[in-house]
């Protein structure tokens, strides 16, 4: 089917999604998290996984590997899709986030402008200032059977603009 037949022009008023990736890299019993720099517009001084926008020329797994390399200096040959999250923004456009996990073969990282990297014991992540969804998403992503059955979720916001996470039944 030609690109013109994909129906995009007819869909200009429909809900659309911006694709992003979020990856959790482990090494043994530790997870690599990125503490957002104080200059960050969102999640400044909070820990998050690594990731970012999917570029027009790449598939989501390639995007995850690229973001990992850019933000950590690690070359990860294999990433496993663990979940897909639809993030509603209250606008006509939302975000679709592809959640990956990977095992690093080394703990040697390279700093980036995004923030400071830290290897944190997985058992201690609740003691760190995390981006608000991570206490729920990290355990889901790291479940041993997760790559065989990726989770699905939707993030919405209540009347007080508080995050509400709902998981699909699959």
Strands, helices and their partners?
Layout: E1 16-27, E2 30-36, E3 47-48, E4 50-53, H1 60-72, E5 80-87, E6 93-103, E7 115-121, H2 134-141, E8 151-157, E9 163-167
Molecular structure report:
- It contains two helices and nine strands; from the N terminus they run E-E-E-E-H-E-E-E-H-E-E.
- It is mostly beta strands and 170 residues long.
- The chain has one domain: Nucleoside Triphosphate Pyrophosphohydrolase, CATH 3.90.79.
- Strands 1, 2, 3, 4, 5, 6, 7, 8 and 9 form a nine-stranded mixed β-sheet that branches.
- It is globular and about 50 Å long.
- The two termini are 30 Å apart.
Could you give a short description of this structure?
With 170 residues, the protein is mainly beta. It has helices at residues 60-72, 134-141; strands at residues 16-27, 30-36, 47-48, 50-53, 80-87, 93-103, 115-121, 151-157, 163-167. The chain contains two helices and nine strands.
Sum up the structure in keywords.
170 residues, mainly beta, 12% helix, single chain, nine-stranded mixed beta sheet, Nucleoside Triphosphate Pyrophosphohydrolase
The tally of strands reads 9
Low-confidence stretches: none
pLDDT averaged over residues: 91
Q: What is the 3D shape?
A: globular
Number of helices: 2
Assign the structural class, choosing from mainly alpha, mainly beta, alpha/beta, alpha+beta, or little secondary structure: mainly beta
């Amino acid at each position: 089917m030609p690109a013109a037949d994909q129906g995009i022009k007819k869909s200009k008023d429909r809900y659309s999604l911006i694709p992003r990736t979020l990856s959790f890299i482990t090494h043994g019993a530790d997870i690599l998290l990125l503490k957002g720099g104080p200059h960050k517009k969102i999640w400044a001084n909070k820990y998050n996984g690594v990731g970012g926008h999917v570029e027009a020329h790449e598939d989501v797994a390639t995007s995850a590997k690229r973001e990992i390399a850019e933000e950590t200096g690690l070359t990860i040959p294999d990433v496993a899709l663990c979940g897909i999250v639809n993030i509603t923004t209250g606008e006509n456009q939302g975000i679709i986030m592809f959640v990956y996990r990977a095992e690093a073969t080394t703990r040697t990282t390279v700093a980036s402008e995004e923030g400071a990297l830290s290897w944190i014991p997985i058992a201690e992540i609740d003691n760190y200032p995390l981006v608000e969804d991570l206490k729920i998403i990290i355990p889901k992503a790291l479940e041993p059977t997760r790559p065989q059955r990726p989770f699905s979720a939707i993030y919405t916001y209540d009347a007080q603009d508080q995050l509400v996470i709902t998981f699909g039944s699959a």
